[in-house]
TrEMBL record:
PANTHER family: LEUCINE-SPECIFIC-BINDING PROTEIN, PERIPLASMIC BINDING PROTEIN OF ABC TRANSPORTER FOR NATURAL AMINO ACIDS. SUPFAM superfamilies: Periplasmic binding protein-like I. Residues 1-39 form the signal peptide. The keyword Signal applies. The keyword Nucleus does not apply. This is Penicillin-binding protein activator. GO terms for biological process: amino acid transport. Residues 66-391 form the Leucine-binding protein domain. InterPro entries: BCAA_transport (IPR051010), Leu-bd (IPR028081), Peripla_BP_I (IPR028082). Keywords: Amino-acid transport, Signal, Transport. Belongs to the leucine-binding protein family.
Amino acid sequence: MWRQSVARLATAFSLGLKRHGVAALLIAGGLSACSTVTAPPPVAQGPQPGATSASASGSSADASETVKVALLLPLTGPSAGIGQSMLDAAQLALFDMAGDRFELLPRDTKGSPAGAAEAARQALAEGARLILGPLFAAEVAAVKPVAQNAGVDVLAFTNDWTQAGNGAFVMGFVPADQVGRVAGFAKSRGVSRFVVLAPRTPYGDAVVSAMQGATERLGAVAQVERYDAAVTDLSGPAKQVAQGVGQPQAVLLAEGGNRAQGLAAALAANGVSPQQVKFLGTGLWDDAQQGTAALGQEPALVGGWYAAPTPQARAAFESKFEQTYGRKPPRIATLAYDATSVAAVLSRAGGAMDRKAMTNPSGFEGLDGLFRLRANGLVERGLAVLEVAPTGARVVDAAPPSFDVLGQ
């Protein structure tokens, strides 16, 4: 019954944007950093979850009790623009998804670890059962012990996977799922000899580790080539690949934007032809601000593959955000929407905010597609595989409709 209940909840995210007009959302404008946001009485909401969901999660929450959830963001300081946009996205989720007994407690971290810890203490003192955010890894590290002492979990927006665990879930996009997905798709298309070309950075380390793990599972081979992250002449790293032992069938580039373009051009110039070798990317290629169309302006990258959420899944959100607030949202704004939606949906299911409720294996369907929170604190995502084209990107392998399809 619990599995069926959450399966119904998983569909609510994609339906939420269709339920409310923009006019209803405009009343949320001008919210201050110290406000308490309470959802209005639900109008034209979708089906309510199954009656057993609260007991199945082990929660004894009173269904009539107001559920308070903290939202920690940098609302002042250098990153205030990003923080405000994420707060705006959370408000869209609030009015799309929440019932009338849900309160969002936005608190300003000031973009610092000390500010984040103090914001967490304030929200917890006011009765927050769950913390959404903060944004930066150092802030998350400061908030975790505060939340642990209160027995409250954290859905953090950082993409620093090392912050996962001990009650903290990393909602940000991390390379493990991306690399495994695109490598698996390439293997299904006959690729068995990979090269991973990565800078000597923590991100490069993570990409290399993910590719080595993926190729081991797939029965493929991965050659590793590293280079100094500060190098400006990209012909050097390209020659490392070109002069390596054997011709690879695919090269994974652990770079995005201009660096990915430069590496691809240098590889092609040194004999690693995109007509013979498939170029693969990570989630860094899924940059809505530069856009995959920008990547496609480099001929060597056209036809390259990368794994990312299906762009169409968040298109309605981006359109509504721009219509409501008069500006485009940053790419990571979807994280705030999805995290707020998780909290809102669980609050409507009886107020359950415990780990069992959040980590059920069926997961949720959010703006960035299928995802589920794992016991280790990492968020597993069901990703599509996209192909770079001169005018953008096209989906060449759809995201899975459920984790059952993945056999997990």
